[in-house]
Amino acid sequence: MAFPQTRMRRLRASAGLRGLVRETELSAGRLMLPLFVMDPGSTHAAREPIAAMPGVERLSISAAVADAREAAALGIGAVMLFGVPGEKDEHGSGAWDEEGVVQVATRALKQALPELLVVTDVCLCEYTIHGHCGVLRDDGAVDNDATVELLGRTAVSHARAGADLVAPSDMMDGRVGAIRDELDGEGFSEIPILAYSAKFASAFYGPFREAAGSTPAFGDRRGYQLDPANGQEAVREALLDVQEGADMVMVKPALAYGDLISAVKRATGLPLAAYNVSGEYAMVKAAAAAGYLDERATVLEILTSLHRAGADTIISYHAKDAARWLTELNP
Prior knowledge:
It is built from eleven helices and ten strands. The longest helix is centred in the middle third of the chain and has 18 residues, at 144-161. The mean pLDDT is 92. It has a single domain (8-329), classed as TIM Barrel, CATH 3.20.20. Helix 2 crosses helix 3 (101-112), helix 3 runs parallel beside helix 4 (144-161) and helix 4 packs across helix 5. The chain has 331 residues and is of the alpha/beta class. The radius of gyration is 18 Å and the shape is globular. Strands 1, 2, 3, 4, 5, 6, 7, 8, 9 and 10 form a ten-stranded mixed beta sheet that branches.
Protein backbone atom coordinates (compact mmCIF):
# COMPACT_ATOMS: atom_id res chain seq x y z
CA MET A 1 0.00 0.00 0.00
CA ALA A 2 1.36 3.38 -1.04
CA PHE A 3 1.66 6.73 0.71
CA PRO A 4 -0.23 8.21 2.56
CA GLN A 5 -1.58 4.95 4.06
CA THR A 6 1.96 3.59 4.36
CA ARG A 7 4.27 5.90 6.30
CA MET A 8 7.61 4.27 7.02
CA ARG A 9 8.58 7.15 9.32
CA ARG A 10 5.89 6.27 11.92
CA LEU A 11 8.19 3.80 13.63
CA ARG A 12 11.19 6.17 13.45
CA ALA A 13 9.60 9.08 15.26
CA SER A 14 11.25 8.64 18.68
CA ALA A 15 14.08 6.81 20.39
CA GLY A 16 11.51 4.59 22.10
CA LEU A 17 9.91 3.48 18.85
CA ARG A 18 13.26 2.90 17.17
CA GLY A 19 14.40 0.82 20.13
CA LEU A 20 11.17 -1.17 20.11
CA VAL A 21 11.76 -2.43 16.56
CA ARG A 22 15.58 -2.73 16.46
CA GLU A 23 16.45 -6.04 14.82
CA THR A 24 18.97 -7.66 17.19
CA GLU A 25 19.69 -8.34 20.92
CA LEU A 26 17.41 -9.38 23.77
CA SER A 27 17.10 -6.52 26.22
CA ALA A 28 14.56 -4.94 28.52
CA GLY A 29 13.77 -2.45 25.77
CA ARG A 30 12.36 -5.34 23.73
CA LEU A 31 9.77 -6.17 26.39
CA MET A 32 6.23 -4.89 26.76
CA LEU A 33 4.39 -5.19 30.08
CA PRO A 34 0.61 -5.79 30.02
CA LEU A 35 -1.39 -3.92 32.67
CA PHE A 36 -4.99 -4.63 33.70
CA VAL A 37 -6.49 -1.30 34.73
CA MET A 38 -9.72 -0.96 36.69
CA ASP A 39 -12.41 1.64 36.14
CA PRO A 40 -11.52 4.91 37.93
CA GLY A 41 -14.89 4.77 39.67
CA SER A 42 -14.21 1.29 41.06
CA THR A 43 -14.60 0.71 44.80
CA HIS A 44 -12.08 -2.14 44.74
CA ALA A 45 -8.69 -1.90 46.40
CA ALA A 46 -5.88 -0.25 44.44
CA ARG A 47 -4.40 -3.69 43.76
CA GLU A 48 -6.53 -6.79 43.28
CA PRO A 49 -4.59 -10.10 42.93
CA ILE A 50 -5.43 -12.41 40.05
CA ALA A 51 -5.51 -15.95 41.41
CA ALA A 52 -4.56 -17.69 38.17
CA MET A 53 -1.61 -15.35 37.54
CA PRO A 54 0.57 -15.10 40.67
CA GLY A 55 2.30 -11.74 40.82
CA VAL A 56 -0.14 -10.05 38.41
CA GLU A 57 -2.87 -7.71 39.67
CA ARG A 58 -5.80 -5.64 38.49
CA LEU A 59 -4.75 -2.06 39.13
CA SER A 60 -6.28 1.30 39.93
CA ILE A 61 -5.12 4.20 37.75
CA SER A 62 -2.60 5.33 40.38
CA ALA A 63 -1.31 1.78 40.87
CA ALA A 64 -0.95 1.38 37.09
CA VAL A 65 1.11 4.57 36.99
CA ALA A 66 3.29 3.19 39.80
CA ASP A 67 3.84 -0.10 37.98
CA ALA A 68 4.56 1.71 34.72
CA ARG A 69 7.08 3.91 36.53
CA GLU A 70 8.81 0.78 37.83
CA ALA A 71 8.79 -0.73 34.33
CA ALA A 72 10.31 2.43 32.86
CA ALA A 73 13.04 2.46 35.50
CA LEU A 74 13.90 -1.12 34.52
CA GLY A 75 14.24 -0.10 30.87
CA ILE A 76 11.10 -1.89 29.64
CA GLY A 77 10.10 -0.55 26.23
CA ALA A 78 6.34 -0.18 26.59
CA VAL A 79 3.22 -1.00 28.57
CA MET A 80 0.03 -2.42 27.03
CA LEU A 81 -3.29 -1.42 28.60
CA PHE A 82 -6.34 -3.65 29.06
CA GLY A 83 -9.42 -2.08 30.59
CA VAL A 84 -11.54 -3.66 33.32
CA PRO A 85 -14.67 -1.47 33.14
CA GLY A 86 -17.22 -0.97 35.88
CA GLU A 87 -20.15 -1.34 33.48
CA LYS A 88 -20.81 -3.27 30.27
CA ASP A 89 -23.50 -3.25 27.58
CA GLU A 90 -24.52 -5.08 24.41
CA HIS A 91 -22.32 -2.98 22.12
CA GLY A 92 -19.30 -2.44 24.38
CA SER A 93 -19.72 1.35 24.33
CA GLY A 94 -17.26 1.77 27.19
CA ALA A 95 -14.50 0.89 24.71
CA TRP A 96 -14.74 4.26 22.93
CA ASP A 97 -15.92 6.40 25.85
CA GLU A 98 -13.62 9.42 26.13
CA GLU A 99 -13.78 8.95 29.91
CA GLY A 100 -13.40 5.18 29.70
CA VAL A 101 -10.85 3.29 31.75
CA VAL A 102 -8.19 2.94 29.01
CA GLN A 103 -8.59 6.55 27.93
CA VAL A 104 -8.23 7.88 31.49
CA ALA A 105 -5.31 5.55 32.19
CA THR A 106 -3.55 6.56 28.99
CA ARG A 107 -3.80 10.24 29.84
CA ALA A 108 -2.50 9.59 33.36
CA LEU A 109 0.42 7.52 32.11
CA LYS A 110 1.45 9.98 29.41
CA GLN A 111 1.28 12.86 31.90
CA ALA A 112 3.40 11.00 34.45
CA LEU A 113 5.75 9.22 32.05
CA PRO A 114 5.76 11.01 28.69
CA GLU A 115 8.69 9.02 27.31
CA LEU A 116 7.23 5.56 28.07
CA LEU A 117 5.37 4.04 25.12
CA VAL A 118 1.71 3.32 25.85
CA VAL A 119 0.08 0.66 23.66
CA THR A 120 -3.68 0.17 23.88
CA ASP A 121 -5.61 -3.02 23.19
CA VAL A 122 -8.46 -2.23 20.78
CA CYS A 123 -11.28 -4.71 21.28
CA LEU A 124 -14.82 -4.86 22.65
CA CYS A 125 -14.75 -8.14 24.60
CA GLU A 126 -14.00 -6.56 27.99
CA TYR A 127 -16.87 -4.10 27.50
CA THR A 128 -19.71 -6.31 26.21
CA ILE A 129 -22.07 -8.12 28.54
CA HIS A 130 -21.80 -11.23 26.36
CA GLY A 131 -17.98 -11.25 26.29
CA HIS A 132 -17.60 -11.52 22.52
CA CYS A 133 -15.27 -9.25 20.55
CA GLY A 134 -17.99 -7.40 18.66
CA VAL A 135 -21.63 -6.60 18.07
CA LEU A 136 -23.94 -9.61 17.86
CA ARG A 137 -26.49 -10.31 15.15
CA ASP A 138 -29.90 -11.73 16.02
CA ASP A 139 -28.57 -15.24 15.44
CA GLY A 140 -25.82 -14.76 18.06
CA ALA A 141 -22.93 -14.49 15.57
CA VAL A 142 -20.58 -11.49 15.64
CA ASP A 143 -21.45 -8.88 13.00
CA ASN A 144 -18.06 -8.25 11.38
CA ASP A 145 -18.75 -4.97 9.57
CA ALA A 146 -20.72 -3.32 12.37
CA THR A 147 -17.93 -4.24 14.77
CA VAL A 148 -15.22 -2.80 12.52
CA GLU A 149 -16.89 0.61 12.64
CA LEU A 150 -16.84 0.59 16.45
CA LEU A 151 -13.22 -0.54 16.54
CA GLY A 152 -12.26 2.46 14.43
CA ARG A 153 -14.07 4.73 16.87
CA THR A 154 -12.26 3.05 19.77
CA ALA A 155 -8.82 3.42 18.20
CA VAL A 156 -9.40 7.14 17.58
CA SER A 157 -10.44 7.65 21.20
CA HIS A 158 -7.22 5.96 22.33
CA ALA A 159 -5.12 8.11 20.00
CA ARG A 160 -6.89 11.23 21.24
CA ALA A 161 -6.00 10.22 24.82
CA GLY A 162 -2.32 9.99 23.88
CA ALA A 163 -1.67 6.34 22.94
CA ASP A 164 1.60 5.78 21.08
CA LEU A 165 0.39 2.64 19.29
CA VAL A 166 -3.05 1.04 18.94
CA ALA A 167 -3.36 -2.75 18.84
CA PRO A 168 -6.60 -4.27 17.45
CA SER A 169 -7.05 -7.79 18.88
CA ASP A 170 -10.57 -8.64 17.71
CA MET A 171 -9.73 -10.62 14.52
CA MET A 172 -12.50 -9.03 12.44
CA ASP A 173 -11.87 -8.92 8.70
CA GLY A 174 -10.89 -5.48 7.40
CA ARG A 175 -10.42 -3.83 10.77
CA VAL A 176 -6.84 -2.70 10.18
CA GLY A 177 -7.76 -0.77 7.04
CA ALA A 178 -10.80 0.75 8.71
CA ILE A 179 -8.77 1.83 11.74
CA ARG A 180 -6.08 3.32 9.49
CA ASP A 181 -8.71 5.32 7.61
CA GLU A 182 -10.29 6.55 10.86
CA LEU A 183 -6.96 7.53 12.39
CA ASP A 184 -5.83 9.36 9.25
CA GLY A 185 -9.18 11.09 8.89
CA GLU A 186 -9.01 12.38 12.46
CA GLY A 187 -5.48 13.74 12.13
CA PHE A 188 -3.62 10.78 13.65
CA SER A 189 -1.72 9.59 10.59
CA GLU A 190 1.47 9.29 12.67
CA ILE A 191 -0.01 6.70 15.08
CA PRO A 192 1.19 3.16 14.25
CA ILE A 193 -1.04 0.08 14.27
CA LEU A 194 0.21 -3.11 15.93
CA ALA A 195 -2.15 -5.71 14.47
CA TYR A 196 -2.95 -8.94 16.26
CA SER A 197 -2.59 -10.57 12.86
CA ALA A 198 -2.30 -14.24 13.83
CA LYS A 199 -4.36 -14.64 16.99
CA PHE A 200 -5.32 -18.25 17.56
CA ALA A 201 -8.34 -19.73 19.35
CA SER A 202 -6.08 -21.03 22.08
CA ALA A 203 -6.45 -22.90 25.35
CA PHE A 204 -3.66 -20.69 26.76
CA TYR A 205 -5.94 -17.67 27.31
CA GLY A 206 -7.82 -18.91 30.37
CA PRO A 207 -6.08 -16.83 33.07
CA PHE A 208 -6.38 -13.65 30.98
CA ARG A 209 -10.14 -14.05 30.76
CA GLU A 210 -10.29 -14.22 34.54
CA ALA A 211 -8.12 -11.12 34.80
CA ALA A 212 -10.07 -9.04 32.27
CA GLY A 213 -13.52 -10.49 32.94
CA SER A 214 -13.87 -11.30 29.24
CA THR A 215 -14.98 -14.94 29.16
CA PRO A 216 -17.76 -15.34 26.55
CA ALA A 217 -21.18 -15.79 28.13
CA PHE A 218 -21.96 -18.42 25.49
CA GLY A 219 -20.14 -20.24 22.71
CA ASP A 220 -16.51 -19.50 21.91
CA ARG A 221 -14.37 -17.39 19.56
CA ARG A 222 -13.47 -20.06 17.03
CA GLY A 223 -15.61 -18.33 14.43
CA TYR A 224 -13.20 -15.42 14.23
CA GLN A 225 -9.89 -16.48 15.85
CA LEU A 226 -7.51 -18.79 13.96
CA ASP A 227 -7.54 -22.59 14.12
CA PRO A 228 -4.27 -23.66 15.84
CA ALA A 229 -3.77 -26.25 13.09
CA ASN A 230 -3.48 -23.63 10.32
CA GLY A 231 -0.08 -22.10 9.64
CA GLN A 232 -0.53 -20.92 6.06
CA GLU A 233 -3.75 -19.18 6.99
CA ALA A 234 -1.87 -17.28 9.71
CA VAL A 235 0.64 -15.99 7.16
CA ARG A 236 -2.18 -14.97 4.84
CA GLU A 237 -3.88 -13.06 7.67
CA ALA A 238 -0.67 -11.18 8.37
CA LEU A 239 -0.16 -10.29 4.72
CA LEU A 240 -3.70 -8.94 4.50
CA ASP A 241 -3.02 -6.74 7.52
CA VAL A 242 0.12 -5.44 5.83
CA GLN A 243 -1.93 -4.54 2.74
CA GLU A 244 -4.42 -2.70 4.95
CA GLY A 245 -1.72 -0.56 6.55
CA ALA A 246 -0.42 -2.38 9.65
CA ASP A 247 2.92 -1.05 10.89
CA MET A 248 3.63 -4.07 13.11
CA VAL A 249 2.14 -7.56 13.26
CA MET A 250 1.68 -10.03 16.09
CA VAL A 251 1.57 -13.78 16.68
CA LYS A 252 -0.43 -14.88 19.73
CA PRO A 253 0.18 -17.16 21.66
CA ALA A 254 3.96 -17.40 21.45
CA LEU A 255 5.50 -20.48 23.07
CA ALA A 256 3.87 -23.11 20.86
CA TYR A 257 3.99 -20.93 17.74
CA GLY A 258 7.69 -20.30 17.09
CA ASP A 259 7.34 -21.73 13.59
CA LEU A 260 4.71 -19.12 12.78
CA ILE A 261 6.67 -16.29 14.37
CA SER A 262 9.43 -17.14 11.90
CA ALA A 263 7.06 -17.65 8.96
CA VAL A 264 5.16 -14.41 9.53
CA LYS A 265 8.37 -12.46 10.03
CA ARG A 266 9.81 -13.78 6.76
CA ALA A 267 6.61 -13.20 4.82
CA THR A 268 5.86 -9.66 5.99
CA GLY A 269 9.26 -8.14 6.71
CA LEU A 270 7.56 -5.96 9.33
CA PRO A 271 8.48 -5.57 13.00
CA LEU A 272 6.80 -8.47 14.80
CA ALA A 273 5.49 -8.86 18.36
CA ALA A 274 5.01 -12.20 20.09
CA TYR A 275 2.53 -12.34 22.96
CA ASN A 276 3.81 -14.62 25.75
CA VAL A 277 0.27 -15.14 27.02
CA SER A 278 -1.32 -15.70 30.42
CA GLY A 279 -1.44 -19.50 30.27
CA GLU A 280 2.24 -19.67 29.32
CA TYR A 281 3.03 -17.39 32.26
CA ALA A 282 0.87 -19.39 34.68
CA MET A 283 2.49 -22.71 33.69
CA VAL A 284 5.98 -21.42 34.44
CA LYS A 285 4.89 -19.84 37.75
CA ALA A 286 3.16 -23.05 38.86
CA ALA A 287 6.09 -25.27 37.90
CA ALA A 288 8.58 -22.93 39.60
CA ALA A 289 6.47 -22.77 42.77
CA ALA A 290 6.46 -26.58 42.87
CA GLY A 291 10.23 -26.68 42.47
CA TYR A 292 10.09 -28.33 39.06
CA LEU A 293 11.78 -25.50 37.15
CA ASP A 294 14.31 -22.73 37.71
CA GLU A 295 12.04 -19.74 37.04
CA ARG A 296 14.74 -17.29 36.02
CA ALA A 297 16.49 -19.69 33.65
CA THR A 298 13.20 -20.87 32.16
CA VAL A 299 11.78 -17.40 31.55
CA LEU A 300 14.96 -16.08 29.94
CA GLU A 301 15.21 -19.18 27.75
CA ILE A 302 11.61 -18.75 26.58
CA LEU A 303 12.04 -15.06 25.82
CA THR A 304 15.34 -15.68 24.04
CA SER A 305 13.73 -18.38 21.92
CA LEU A 306 10.93 -16.02 20.87
CA HIS A 307 13.42 -13.35 19.89
CA ARG A 308 15.47 -15.96 18.02
CA ALA A 309 12.36 -17.09 16.14
CA GLY A 310 11.88 -13.56 14.83
CA ALA A 311 10.03 -11.55 17.49
CA ASP A 312 11.30 -7.98 17.64
CA THR A 313 9.30 -7.25 20.79
CA ILE A 314 7.79 -9.63 23.34
CA ILE A 315 4.65 -8.90 25.35
CA SER A 316 5.05 -10.76 28.63
CA TYR A 317 3.79 -10.77 32.21
CA HIS A 318 7.36 -11.77 33.13
CA ALA A 319 8.66 -8.45 31.79
CA LYS A 320 9.66 -6.79 35.08
CA ASP A 321 11.37 -9.89 36.43
CA ALA A 322 13.08 -10.52 33.10
CA ALA A 323 14.35 -6.94 32.96
CA ARG A 324 15.89 -7.31 36.42
CA TRP A 325 17.50 -10.60 35.48
CA LEU A 326 18.90 -9.19 32.26
CA THR A 327 20.47 -6.34 34.24
CA GLU A 328 22.04 -8.83 36.62
CA LEU A 329 23.45 -10.76 33.67
CA ASN A 330 24.65 -7.61 31.89
CA PRO A 331 25.40 -5.08 34.66
